[in-house]
Amino acid sequence: MIRQNPSYVQRSARRCNPLKSCYYLLPIRKNPIQKCLGIVIALGVIVYICGPSMDLRRFIPFQKNGQIDLDSIRGTNRSLTVVTAFFNIGSFPKGKPDDVRSTDNYTEWMRTYSYMKNPVVFYTDDETYIDFFSTLRKNAPHTKFILVNRTDLWAFQILPNITKIYSNVTYPEYYPNTNNSEYTCVTHSKLQLLALTVQNKSFDTDYFCWVDAGYFRDISHKEKKFWLEVPDDFDKSRIAVTRVYDSDLEKTTAKDIILKNLNWVGGGLFLGTPEVILKFHDQYQKAVMRYLGQGIMNVEQHILFAMYTRQERNKYSIRVELQRYTPGQRPVVNNNDWFYLGYVMYRVDPR
Question: Where would you find the membrane-spanning parts of this chain (predicted)?
Answer without folding.
Answer: 36-54
